């Protein structure tokens, strides 16, 4: 489904959470929605899911506004970092309710995931640990098979093994049936390899929208002796440098090819570091 974000502004009182945000998502891909605390990610995702209204501007999903639009709300599944479900309901009932709500619900997948995460379907949400509640959110998000599935930090309390399981299943599901997955996270290093496109928000505005592979190639880390690296980075756009025992690593913004001919050791820069750099630079 095509998502057009057109000059979205959201104000909470005097606070400008989104400031004339504009971009477009054309294809079913795994999108990484990144940004510092308070950048406006959750606000954007709630407007996309039709849960809140923008103060100005509009989001169109295949040309229609998602707010109060049932056929569209069935197409968008937003899983937040907590409080996704009524506390007095059992897991089984939550899965049942969601199976009625989402036309493309996959009960077989839901059952498999309940077993994978060792969950007791008879348990009420209020008795679940944080990690178990997150697992339930992940199950609903994946099994919804909603054409637009949005995960907003969905793994609070999940240990590393359980998160890895989630990423693997997400990728498998995506490969079988591509859909638009928007993934907002602060654990960028852990998941950035999944992203096909990266959107970075800063203070309610778009700081960057870029193909993830292009982004990986637009920056590099170069290492060698202090003198060599210092000489190399003259006239380069340097993200940051680290020094240890006469050796230096410099993170540079530019084409990796320019470094490969230098004879120095060259590596990619993690998207997380790039995000930090880009949001610092733009705000400067
Ligand atoms: N209900 C609300 N009432 C008042 N201010 C709000 C409300 N929701 C969000 N904000 C403010 O809007 C801004 C954007 O918040 P939002 O939660 O969208 O950011 P975020 O990028 O998701 O942040 P984080 O990474 O910390 O979750 C913040 O300054 C926040 O304090």
What this model shows, in words?
GO terms for molecular function: ATP binding; ATP hydrolysis activity. Keywords: ATP-binding, Nucleotide-binding. This is ABC transporter ATP-binding protein. The protein contains eleven helices and 13 strands. The two termini are about 35 Å apart. The protein has helices at about 40-50, 70-75, 90-100, 105-115, 130-145, 160-175, 190, 210-215, 225-235, 255-260, 270-284, and strands at about 5-10, 15-25, 30-35, 55-60, 75-80, 150, 180-185, 195-200, 205-210, 220-225, 235-245, 245-255, 265-270. Strand 6, helix 6 (about 160-175) and strand 7 (about 180-185) form a beta-alpha-beta unit. Helices cover about 35% and strands about 30% of the residues. The radius of gyration is 21 Å and the shape is globular. The protein has about 280 residues and is an alpha/beta fold. The structure holds adenosine-5'-triphosphate.
What profile does the largest beta sheet have?
6 strands, mixed
| SSE order | EEEHEHEHHHEHEHEEHEHEEHEH
Question: How many helices does DSSP assign?
Answer: 11
CATH superfamily of the largest domain: P-loop containing nucleotide triphosphate hydrolases
Mean pLDDT: 92
Strand content: 25-35%
What structural class is derived from the secondary structure elements? alpha/beta
Rg value: 21 Å
């Amino acid at each position: 489904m095509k998502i057009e974000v057109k000059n979205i502004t959201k104000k909470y009182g005097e606070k400008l959470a989104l400031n004339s945000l504009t971009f477009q998502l054309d294809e079913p891909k795994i999108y990484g929605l990144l940004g510092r605390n308070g950048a406006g990610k959750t606000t954007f995702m709630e407007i996309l899911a039709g849960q809140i209204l923008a103060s100005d501007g509009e989001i169109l999903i295949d040309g229609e506004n998602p707010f109060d639009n049932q056929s569209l709300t069935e197409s968008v599944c937003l899983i937040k970092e907590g409080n996704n479900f009524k506390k007095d309901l059992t897991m089984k009932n939550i899965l049942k309710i969601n199976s009625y709500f989402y036309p493309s619900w996959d009960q077989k997948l839901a059952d498999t995931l309940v077993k994978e995460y060792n969950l007791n379907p008879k348990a009420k949400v209020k008795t679940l640990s944080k990690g178990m509640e997150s697992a339930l959110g992940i199950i609903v998000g994946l099994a919804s098979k909603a054409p637009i599935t949005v995960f907003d930090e969905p793994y609070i309390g999940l240990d590393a093994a359980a998160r890895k399981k989630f990423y693997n299943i997400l990728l498998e599901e995506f490969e079988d049936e591509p859909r638009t997955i928007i993934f907002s996270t602060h654990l960028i290093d852990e998941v950035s390899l999944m992203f096909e496109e990266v959107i970075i928000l800063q203070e309610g505005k778009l700081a960057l929208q870029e193909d993830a592979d292009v982004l990986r190639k637009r920056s590099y880390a170069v290492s060698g002796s202090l003198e060599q690296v210092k000489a190399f980075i003259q006239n380069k756009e340097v993200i940051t440098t680290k020094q240890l025992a006469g050796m230096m690593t410099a993170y540079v913004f530019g084409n990796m090819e320019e470094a490969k001919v230098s004879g120095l050791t060259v590596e990619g820069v993690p998207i997380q570091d790039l995000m930090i750099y880009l949001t610092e630079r733009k705000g400067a």
